[in-house]
């Protein structure tokens, strides 16, 4: 009983802070604010929680993006399209909403920043979880000859296989969506092939590069973070912007514990790998990243290079300063994984991360 009372107090405090921010930033009247605060106070007293209006939800999701310390692309936070799917109650309906999100966000390559919010966690602990790290991601398989596909997906792939999904066993099998409601046995749903836009990688000047057979999917839709707004936790709220090239070319395809493609690229380009002093990793990395950016643009898919992204972040910082807001930032995440010292963010090492709300937050893995 005492814990429930304390939780209600925490929710009430967070709700008041958020709603005051919402009414202040959107220029609404003091009388409207006081009326809304009274409504929320009654709801929390009776139910232990309250329900955001659609406008509050949209504003909160956008500010959560603005606040998120790890994101370099926050200049565009106001453009986020928020889809309110809080009324959905079945795994099938949720999966259909996720398909709609993928279709809308992809937009045939002209990526649109989007968020879909499902029902928030209830006071009794009931919640919706999407098991995927991203709505679209490639599977990873353990084989007698080593790992095939994405090593980062091994655990989730094994869960999907246990649930009855069957992959083809290739390097680029798109995983199914896995949805769980209130701790029930999760259900899996294959993503229609027509929804998944992929980009085959070619090089602007090295014709043989395409022989490597590399590719990547167009849209990174994070789906395992919780969206926290005013004391309310949305445990299923997939969100996307568009890729920064180095996310693919300097991490996903390059990391030794991911696809580890740098040795093969170096060999294809005839670069000596017998010693680190040849800087073969650096040279292969540059050409891989050039390929990613060129290929996405050639296919009409939105992407930003790390230098432009860093400049955009500096513009974001300046705008926030003009609005009297302190930027929440984790420097180690904002400097790109390739040539960080060549970007202006390198010189902003005094940036500080703090706990803020609204925000997107990590949550415990459901499997």
TrEMBL record:
<feature type="domain" description="Nitric oxide synthase (NOS)">
    <location>
        <begin position="9"/>
        <end position="365"/>
    </location>
</feature>
<dbReference type="InterPro" id="IPR017142">
    <property type="entry name" value="Nitric_oxide_synthase_Oase-su"/>
</dbReference>
<dbReference type="InterPro" id="IPR050607">
    <property type="entry name" value="NOS"/>
</dbReference>
<keyword id="KW-0175">Coiled coil</keyword>
<protein>
    <recommendedName>
        <fullName>Nitric oxide synthase oxygenase</fullName>
        <ecNumber>1.14.14.47</ecNumber>
    </recommendedName>
</protein>
<dbReference type="InterPro" id="IPR044943">
    <property type="entry name" value="NOS_dom_1"/>
</dbReference>
<dbReference type="InterPro" id="IPR044940">
    <property type="entry name" value="NOS_dom_2"/>
</dbReference>
<feature type="coiled-coil region">
    <location>
        <begin position="23"/>
        <end position="50"/>
    </location>
</feature>
<comment type="function">
    <text>Catalyzes the production of nitric oxide.</text>
</comment>
<dbReference type="InterPro" id="IPR004030">
    <property type="entry name" value="NOS_N"/>
</dbReference>
<comment type="subunit">
    <text>Homodimer.</text>
</comment>
<dbReference type="InterPro" id="IPR044944">
    <property type="entry name" value="NOS_dom_3"/>
</dbReference>
<keyword id="KW-0479">Metal-binding</keyword>
<dbReference type="Pfam" id="PF02898">
    <property type="entry name" value="NO_synthase"/>
</dbReference>
<dbReference type="InterPro" id="IPR036119">
    <property type="entry name" value="NOS_N_sf"/>
</dbReference>
<keyword id="KW-0408">Iron</keyword>
<keyword id="KW-0560">Oxidoreductase</keyword>
<comment type="similarity">
    <text>Belongs to the NOS family. Bacterial NOS oxygenase subfamily.</text>
</comment>
<keyword id="KW-0349">Heme</keyword>
